[in-house]
Amino acid sequence: MVILLVKRFRSGALPYPGKLDEAEKIYQRALQGKAKALGPGHTSTLDTVNNLANLYRDQGKLGEAEKMYQRALQGMEKAWGPDHTSTLSTVNNLANLYVDQGRLDEVEKMYQRSLQGHKKALGPGHTDTVNNLGLLYTKQGKLDEPEKMYQRALQGYEKALGPGHTSMLNTVNNLGLLYTDQGKLNEAEKALGPGHTNTVDNLGILYKSQDKLDEAEKMYQRALQGKEKALGPGHTSTLNTVNNLGLLYVDQGKLDEAEKTYQRALQGYEKALGPGHISTLVTVDNLGLLYMDQGKLDEAEKMHQRALREGVGPRSHINAGHGQQLGHSLQIPG
Q1: Which phi and psi (to 5°) does residue 58 adopt?
Q2: How confident is the model at residue 123 (pLDDT cuts 50, 70, 90)?
Q3: What's the rounded Cα separation, in Å, for the pair 293 and 265?
Q4: For the packed helices 62-79 and 85-101, what is the interaxial angle rounded to 10 degrees?
Q5: Are 239 and 216 in contact (CB under 8 A)?
Q6: Which one-letter DSSP state was computed for residue 19?
Q7: Are the C-beta atoms of 274 and 60 separated by less than 8 Å?
Q8: Mean pLDDT of the region 82-100
Q9: Which of 109, 161, 195, 205 could form a disulfide with 165 if both were Cys (CB 3.0 to 4.6 A apart)?
């Protein structure tokens, strides 16, 4: 029964928002049961260790996530060998965690290990790892390297999955954001293109960087409506767009609208991810800065004290992105 419930959590059959604590209890029970019945080094036990690490990362418990990933990695290396695809998936997960922690030198080593291992196991150019290296190089400011990685990833995805696959579209989005960072705004707009909600979101980021604030607002509103319909108002991707719309309202001087928008984002993140998650804390910081702009100094102090308790503060360089994209300042990617 426990294992079935775990599978249902991973497949999304149970409502995800607000269920992280319940999921943790289920994974812990499954882990104890598997370790007792099969042994701590059994591959099924190690899969649950890895899944529990993923959950801890979603909860913002990065220290606990690292311990679980390290435990899973050591066990899989022993059970499967260092170049098995399951081992390499855990290497990749650990690298993604290091991104969250800002340990970029270690990230590069892990991604390179994953890439080399996948070359042996699957042939050259494991596409997910190539894409992740592009993200890493972008964050490191090595802006010539990511374009090569993204173009390589695009070719791999298009060949293996087809031009309309979500992985292909995510890499197109990443390439568009890279062009934005490089100041190649025409190339960025071509790469991002019209239509898809994440693409519309990214066009909002692009227009904001060009100081086309009215166009940016239209894109964010369009993206928000699409995500609310497709994903629901409490989905984290929807909330990311809400947060970004709040930032735009600040730039436009619409401070009351910004406050309402940040409050919505904050309440949603707290419910979906928990009070200590990095995306929640980004919004806490944004709201604190807004309260300062409004002259609400008591409210601002409360927000900043909360942020400081969690190890961040005003205008901290927080990486709020998970997975496919990197954050822009205190903006959260869709």
Answers
A1: -60, -30
A2: low
A3: 19
A4: 160
A5: no
A6: -
A7: yes
A8: 85
A9: 161
Q: Which of 275, 281, 264 is nearest to 315 (CA)?
A: 281
For the residues 169-189, what does the mean pLDDT come to?
A: 68
pLDDT, residue 318, reads 35
Q: Is the pLDDT of residue 210 over 90?
A: no
Residue 275: predicted pLDDT: 86
Domains of the chain: 1-12+19-123 (1.25.40.10), 125-186 (1.25.40), 228-334 (1.25.40.10)
Residue with tokens 């419910």: 271
- Supply angle C-alpha 272, 285, 281, rounded to 5: 30
The token duo for 185 is: 């705004």
Say if CB 204 and CB 223 are below 8 A apart: yes
In whole angstroms, what is the distance from residue 281 CA to residue 313 CA? 9
- State pLDDT tens for residues 49-86: 999 998 898 888 889 999 999 999 999 999 989 888 78
Question: Which residue, chain included where needed, has tokens 């690490």?
Answer: 53
Task: Give the torsion sign (CA, 257, 262, 267, 271).
Answer: positive
The CA-to-CA distance between both ends of the chain, in Å, stands at: 35
Q: Are 74 and 90 in contact (CB under 8 A)?
A: no
**How many angstroms separate the CA atoms of 2 and 13, rounded?**
14
The stretch 191-220 carries a mean pLDDT of 76
pTM, 2 dp: 0.51
Give the torsion sign (CA, 54, 56, 57, 59): positive
Identify the helix (H) or strand (E) that includes residue 230.
helix 213-230
Instruction: Report yes or no: 285 and 313 within 8 Å, Cβ to Cβ.
Output: yes
331: three-class secondary structure by DSSP: strand
Partner residues linked to 331 by β-bridges: 328
pLDDT beyond 60 at 6: no
Q: Tokens representing 264?
A: 């919505």
